[in-house]
Amino acid sequence: MSDTLLGRIVTLTRSITAGLRFRSDSFPIDRIDRLADFIASRAAFVCQKKLYGYLKQRIGTRWPSMFEDEVFRSSITTASMQVFAACLSDLTIHAVAHALAGSGATDEVKSALARDMYAQGLQDNRADATEGFDINQVLADFDHRLDGTDWKFGALLPENFTRSPTALLRWAPIAERYKRSDAEIVENSLKFAWVDIREQFARRLDAAAIAREVNESRSGTEG
């Protein structure tokens, strides 16, 4: 591979993921803004790791030359935001469900907090500026998901991480015949990635502090 081609690949990869935040912080998740930051940054991390990992594994030695194809580059950009939105959806519901479990917050309050964090995550990661990505449709899909969310049980389970593997298989610019045979591998790979993220979240979450802030915010609004 020439230095010139390598440089183009690195530059393109950085430009595609420039809006996605990958900070690896260790502070306690004891405020709503920290909860939102954890959700968005970890969703971006899983998206990048699994999408690019899958593409490199499936394309193999042709991976560098594919970046010279304009259609492929455009497909990667679209896939990055679609998979990010799905990862964000899965993690947002999980995180809000655990942060407010046992707090007395109603399902409506949980849904409102999740919706705000999801919209913020999309905006902060420049989703509205991505060609081939309809942010309004994605928000509408998330609202529909919230309508059917079981906050007291289903949202708390690892099995609720359903959107990210579906999105990765749908949007990755890989031939459909390969995706069919890769489905189980992709799903298992994402399952393992989410295990680590959920463990990080559980270690750092101060649910009581989050619940207090939510309750104080609601009291201020009602007052």
Question: What descriptors fit this protein?
Answer:
72% helix, mainly alpha
Structural write-up:
This protein is mainly alpha-helical. It has one domain. It is built from nine helices and no strands. Helix 2 (32-59) runs antiparallel to helix 4 (70-99) and helix 7 packs antiparallel against helix 8. The radius of gyration is 18 Å and the shape is elongated.
Précis, in short:
By secondary structure, this protein is mainly α. 72% of the residues lie in helices and 0% in strands. The N terminus is likely disordered.
* Overall pLDDT: 86
- Count of β-strands: 0
| General shape | elongated
Q: Number of helix segments?
A: 9
- Helical content (DSSP H or I, runs of 4+): over 70%
Question: In the residues, how many domains can be counted?
Answer: 1
Structure class: mainly alpha
What order do the helices and strands follow? HHHHHHHHH
Quaternary state of this entry equals single chain
The span between the termini is: 64 Å
Q: What proportion strand?
A: under 5%
Report the C-alpha radius of gyration, rounded.
18 Å
- Stretches where pLDDT is under 50 for at least 5 consecutive residues are 1-18
What profile does the largest beta sheet have? none
Topology:
Layout: H1 3-16, H2 32-59, H3 63-66, H4 70-99, H5 107-124, H6 135-147, H7 163-171, H8 176-204, H9 207-222
Helix pairs in contact: 2-4, 2-5, 2-8, 4-5, 4-7, 5-6, 7-8
